Amino acid sequence: MSYQFPSGFQWGVATSAYQIEGAAKEDGRKPSVWDKFSATRGRVLRGDTGAIACDHYHRYREDIQLMAELGVQAYRFSISWCRIVPDGRGAVNEAGVDFYQRLIDCLLEYGITPYATLFHWDSPQALEDRYGSWRSREIAQDFADYVSAIVTRLGDRVRHWMTINEIVCFTHMSYAVGRTPQHAPGTKVRTQKEVWQTSHHALLAHGLGCQAIRASSPQPCSVALVDNFGVTIPLTDTPDDIEAAKKAFAIHHMSNGGIIYPALTGSYSPALLEQLGKDAPNVQDGDLEIIHQPLDFLGLNIYTGNYVRAANNAQGYESVNFPKGYPALHMPWLQVVPDSLYWGIRHVSETLNCPELPIFITENGCAAQDSVNATGEVMDLDRIFYLREYLQTVHRAATEGYPIMGYFAWSFLDNFEWSWGYDRRFGITYVDYRTQKRIPKASYHWYAECVRQNRIV
After folding, report:
1. DSSP state of 414
2. Is 198 within 8 Å of 171 (Cβ atoms)?
3. Any residues with CB less than 8 A from the CB of 222 and at least 6 apart, and which?
4. Which residues are part of the catalytic machinery?
């Protein structure tokens, strides 16, 4: 099989602001919750922080030249709220805006289309101090005001906007009962209801953000949400197991029923609400109408998945655990499950009943144990294996007629991997953090050939 993709398929790479930019105290930027969290002893492996990261703030032109050599048509990056509105609300920092204007102008100079994510976890510390960040409904309006400020200023050259990246990661992984969460701000709360309230507020921010983009953009634009829902995969492609995977989708990964369901369908999953009982979030009149905004596309961040099969129990399915020795890469959760991309795309069309909604894979990639060899190369054959297998299932979705529009490899650069610090490398470009030298890996050159031929090589 040639694995040729349709004409117009978009090939891209992705990053996020806090993970690569550095320059944490320059040009008016104030701290995000990740600045404080990573500087707190014991929160991040080896005490690493994003203060310098890949120094992309100063090296963006060099990095974009590498993207141009890679041949990608699109670049997904995120904008730091703390650079644009450093106090979270109020005055706009024009020096912060200027950085993104220069970045975007450079992308356009090289013929690379910008896809801008407006929030990728780095909320202003000032709002954490003021009202507890995502614990308060106030943050939704503050987010919308920030969105209006940046879209007004950049919307003449950016046509593709994504409101929020991976709600579950900065809510359910950042607030917890009885333990310190692994993500910033790392807040202990008293009840699960409070945790669910944070994701509800994030959904409100998404909805108001969509409205703000459309009201502020000086030109027609596309608006999306980026989600990392848990993918349930039928153990076999039989009608019974496929039905089991669809049943499991809303409740096996509980956040699915409480994040992607309200965003795409306008209501929380009834099965989830039944499970949550008194821990379900408070929903005010009009909230679901705000949350359920029309989307021009959906971004899916998918790395792995879970197998399920039909079972004779009340749920109608059971999860199939990974056996010892199952193939995995360099994260505890990163089992190699290529069909997760195909089934993620198919769940949007069939389980969530959005068959016409265009889909981009906005993140997919893997951490590998990369090192520079004696000849100065990084031969990450494990990453090439991973990417090839996963892209084959994207191709399957395309050939079966699902509306998959493009693929962004995560990540363009090795970077600050949140609570793992700099210990785990996801990039197709190696970064020597001591010298900031960039070394394109074997996977970079392999991916460049896929882009050039518009097929999996």
Report:
1. -
2. yes
3. 159, 160, 161, 296, 297
4. 166, 363
